[in-house]
Amino acid sequence: MNTAVCIKQVPDTTEVRIDPETNALVREGVPSIVNPFDAHATEEAVRLKERYGGTVTIISMGPPQATEAIKKCISFGADRGILLSDRAFAGSDTWATSYIIAAGLKRLMSEQPVDLILCGKQAIDGDTAQVGPGLARRLNLPQITYAISIEEVNLDARRVKVGRRLETGVEVVEAPLPALLTCVEEMNEIRYASLPNMIRAARYEPEVWGRDDLEVEDELLGFNGSPTVVSKIFAPPEREPGEIIPGGTEDPTGVAAVIADKLIEALGATASV
Ligand SMILES: Cc1cc2nc3c(=O)[nH]c(=O)nc-3n(C[C@H](O)[C@H](O)[C@H](O)COP(=O)(O)OP(=O)(O)OC[C@H]3O[C@@H](n4cnc5c(N)ncnc54)[C@H](O)[C@@H]3O)c2cc1C
Questions:
Q1: Which CATH number goes with the domain that contains 137?
Q2: Which residue has the CA at smallest separation from atom 15 of ligand 1?
Q3: If you measure from the C-alpha of residue 10 to the centroid of ligand 1, how many angstroms do you get, rounded to a whole number?
Q4: Residue 17's pLDDT band (boundaries 50, 70, 90)?
Q5: Each residue's pLDDT tens digit, 80-115
Q6: pTM of this structure
Q7: Within-domain flag for 233
Q8: Protein residue whose Cα sits closest to atom 20 of ligand 1
Q9: Of ligand 1's atoms, which has the minimum distance to the CA of residue 97?
Q10: To test ligand 1's pocket by mutation, which of 43, 60, 93, 208 has the most ligand atoms within 8 angstroms of CB?
Q11: Start-to-end Cα distance in the chain
C-alpha cells in the first residue's frame, strides 16, 4: 500500500506578520513547524505502512526552507520527500496551490501506484481547509474529510473504510481506492521518532521539483493563477470589554430581565417581557 501525504510548513506562532507591499505572509526568519494536522496524517500513513507494507511519500509546496518540514516527516518514518518549489509558485492562493500540488501528485502517480492521499483537515495559518478537497476534485478522486480513523483497507477489493468525525458523533463511510482523506488531530498520537529514522532524516535530501518538472501552465501559477485578490489586510479592532451585570448567581431571573431590557433598548424594539 502506497500513500502520499501533503504537508505544509507553517509559522510556529500566532504572531503572523503580513508584508504591507504584497499582502502576503512574512515567512522569512519566522520559526516553522510541520502543520499539526499534517503531522498526524504522516503518523497515520506510517502506521498504514506498518500494517499493509508499501511506502510513504511526502509532498510539500513551499520555499526552500520547507525541506526542514519534509525531513521532520522522514524522521517519523516516511520513505521519500518531494518539495515543489519555484519562484513561479510564489503568491499562490488556495486555487493555484491545489493546481500545483495536483500536478506534483500526477507526476508521482505516473511513476508509482498511489492508493491513498492524506492531507490535514486544514493549515493553522491559512485555515481555509480548501486545498485537500481542491486536490480531490483536480485528481478526480473520492474524498473523505474529517477522517478520525481508518477502519479497514481492502487492497484486493480496492476499498477503504473510514470513520468521519461529525458534530454529533462519528459516521463510518467507504470509498474506492485511490481516495483522498483529510485528517483530524484526534486520529492518532504521534510517536517519538526512532533513532535510526532521526539519523536517516538528518542525512536525507528531499527531491526538489520546480516549474519545469511539472506539467503546468504558467498563467495558472502564483499570483497570476490566483483568483483570490487580497484587497486589504488589517488586524480587527480590539473588542471593547462587555458590561458585567452583577447578581447572576443569586438572581438569575432578575439578571435575565435586565439583559432583555438592554437588548430591547439596543434593538430599539418595543417588546415587553
Ligand atoms: C493572494 C494570495 C497570495 C498568497 N501568497 C502566498 C505566498 O506567497 N506564500 C505562501 O506560502 N502562501 C501564500 N498565500 C497563502 C496560501 O495561498 C495558502 O496558505 C495555501 O493556499 C494553503 O491554503 P491554507 O493555508 O488555507 O491550507 P488548507 O487548505 O487549510 O490546508 C489543508 C491541507 O492541504 C495541504 N496543504 C496546504 N498547503 C500545502 C502546501 N503548501 N504543500 C503541501 N500541502 C499543502 C495540507 O495537507 C493541509 O493540511 C497566499 C494567499 C493569497 C490569497
A1: 3.40.50.620
A2: 93
A3: 9
A4: low
A5: 999 999 999 988 999 999 999 999 999 999 999 999
A6: 0.88
A7: no
A8: 94
A9: 21
A10: 93
A11: 65
Whether 90 and 216 map to the same domain: the answer is yes
pLDDT digits (tens, 9 = 90+) for 165-203: 999 999 999 999 999 999 999 999 999 999 999 999 999
- Is the domain of 151 the same as that of 210? yes
- DSSP secondary structure code for residue 177 in this structure: S
261 and 135 in one domain?
no
In terms of domains, do 109 and 189 share one? yes
The predicted model gives 208-218 an average pLDDT of 98
Same domain, 180 and 259: no
Ligand 1 contact, 60 CB (< 6 A): yes
The verdict on 59 and 184 lying in the same domain is yes
For residues 36 and 184, is the Cβ–Cβ distance under 8 A?
no
pLDDT band at 245 (very low <50, low <70, confident <90, very high): confident
Show the DSSP H helices in 78-179 as ranges.
94-111, 131-138
Burial code (b: 16+ CB inside 10 Å, e: under 16) for 14-39 equals eeeeeeeeeeeeebeebebbbbbbbb
Q: What is the domain extent for residue 22?
A: 2-220
Flag whether 203 is in a domain. yes
CA of 136 to the centre of ligand 1 (A): 16
